Structure to design on (216 residues):
């Protein structure tokens, strides 16, 4: 069976990004608060259904995905990443154009193949451009922070950008989605138990596909 493992650093782990969940209450019905923005549980559920439909349409079996978290958690993480770094970019005057996004897709073999890579990492097609826009912004911010061609400078710059994101656009997750550890992602939490989706949607046409960790 064909593997759609990511070959470029578009996943959160590969990008050296770990989003920190801050303490404090989260408004009822919210899945996450990113700065002054809100992602609702309903929006997450909608995107999970969209992801499952996209996986089925591309014959990517869900039961073969190799994600570090549940589908709802991965969708939430990727939606949060998109909003956090687009907002940080806005405040820093850093943007990513549609041409930037298309050029990145072309460089990775074109949208037809790249969409499968993104789907396998928990990113439905209707969220792909937002995710890539945030990824490009994050990369530009890292370059401004001193990222060069060597791994050491890239990691150091990535940490600077991460720290600024945590301070400037803090994230709060609803405990309903699990306990968030910056080093590990969502982890088991005996206080709340495992994540239980409110309205699980059966994947159309059966299962999904194989992919590497997308958050860390």
């Amino acid at each position: 069976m064909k593997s759609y493992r990511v070959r470029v650093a578009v996943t959160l782990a590969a990008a050296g990004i770990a989003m920190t969940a801050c303490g404090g209450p989260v408004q009822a019905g919210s899945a996450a608060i990113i700065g002054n923005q809100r992602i609702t549980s309903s929006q997450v559920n909608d995107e999970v259904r969209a992801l499952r439909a996209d996986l089925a349409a591309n014959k990517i079996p869900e039961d073969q995905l190799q994600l570090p978290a549940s589908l709802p958690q991965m969708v939430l993480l990727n939606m949060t990443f998109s909003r956090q770094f687009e907002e940080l970019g806005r405040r820093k005057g850093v943007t990513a154009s549609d041409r930037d996004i298309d050029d990145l897709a072309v460089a990775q073999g074109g949208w037809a193949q790249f969409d499968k890579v993104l789907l396998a990492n928990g990113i439905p097609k209707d969220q792909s451009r937002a995710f890539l826009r945030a990824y490009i912004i994050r990369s530009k911010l890292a370059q401004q922070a001193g990222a060069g061609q060597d791994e050491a400078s890239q990691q150091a710059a990535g940490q600077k950008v991460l720290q600024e994101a945590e301070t400037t656009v803090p994230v709060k997750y609803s405990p309903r989605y699990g306990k968030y550890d910056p080093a590990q992602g969502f982890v088991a939490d005996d206080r709340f138990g495992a994540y239980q989706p409110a309205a699980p949607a059966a994947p159309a046409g059966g299962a999904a596909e194989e992919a590497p960790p997308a958050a860390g």
Observations:
- Residues 30-187 form a domain with the Triger factor/SurA peptide-binding fold fold (CATH 1.10.4030).
- The chain has one domain: 30-187.
- The first helix runs from residue 41 to 57.
- Confidence is low (pLDDT under 50) at residues 1-21, 191-216.
